[in-house]
Description:
Elements: E1 3-8, H1 14-22, E2 26-31, E3 36-38, E4 43-45, H2 48-55, E5 60-61, H3 70-74, E6 80-84, H4 92-95, E7 102-106, H5 118-124, E8 129-136, E9 146-153, H6 160-183, H7 205-208, H8 216-225, E10 232-236, E11 239-250, E12 260-264, E13 267-270, E14 276-285, E15 291-292, H9 293-298
Parallel strand pairs: 1-2, 1-6, 2-5, 6-7
Antiparallel strand pairs: 3-4, 7-8, 8-9, 10-11, 11-14, 12-13, 13-14, 14-15
Amino acid sequence: MTRIIFMGTPDFSVPILRNLVKEGYDIVGVVTQPDRPKGRKKTLTPPPVKVEAEKHNIKVLQPEKIRHELDEVLALQPDLIVTAAFGQLLPKELLDAPKYGCINVHASLLPELRGGAPIHYSILQGKDKTGITIMYMAEKLDAGDILTQEEVHIEDRDTVGTLHDKLSEAGVKLLSETIPQLLAGKLTPEQQDDTKATFAPNIKREQEKIDWTSTGEIIYNQIRGLNPWPVAFTTYKTQLMKIWWGEKMPSKNDSPPGTIIGIDQDGFVVATGNTTAIKITELQPSGKKKMTGEDFLRGTTISVGEKLGDEDEKNN
């Protein structure tokens, strides 16, 4: 039986590991990131893949740097290593060890969106499609030869959360189809065209702040491209306000960007840098829970003519 080591860390990886177990592969070990402090109480929390592996009594390794614990990984004598959002590059000694190589489940149509946040960038850039790529791992980030790919359509109302789930499901299906062909020697790897590569580095704090001088389309993509994490934000009376959802709507109002130009029962409308305004319908004021626009308006005196985002952020 083929001996497989699975490497992954977040929720995206869990269905992929679960399906490998379901399909009867011999999972001889799972490698994931160390437990990390989480939440306001900084509780030490295991990564989702560790929780799933322990349900199946699979040996778990959690190296801070995998290159420093190679012997323990190699001792498992894998025929194949499968990674999915693991979070570390593999050293050459490990890439060369398994008989069938090391393959990765990547959430983009490579060579587009190489890097750690391909799902976020696919929405931030307003794409109408992305996909899953199964590829050989290489020493250079996401640059290995492609084995198989599958497109996934992005709906206009998709968020990072909904697209994440679609891609994870597509990854399960494509990997399930790919491994038998790989083991049978029926796949011909295709080299990536590096000249067509684009990149999706991890999201930075400054990318979360809404610039109301941008077009309504860009702001709309920013809101859904950061939902449910890390969530776009603006400021209102110097207080941080997270924006969870907004609707695009046409506007002939020529007020400065960020100005509140309308209020109705379920939200308030904000001017942008073009004729597409954004109606905020789900938000989270500083120090409070997420709420609907209707609930927010019920407990505030916000009014037309006030501005968002024109003062420095005061707190988080």
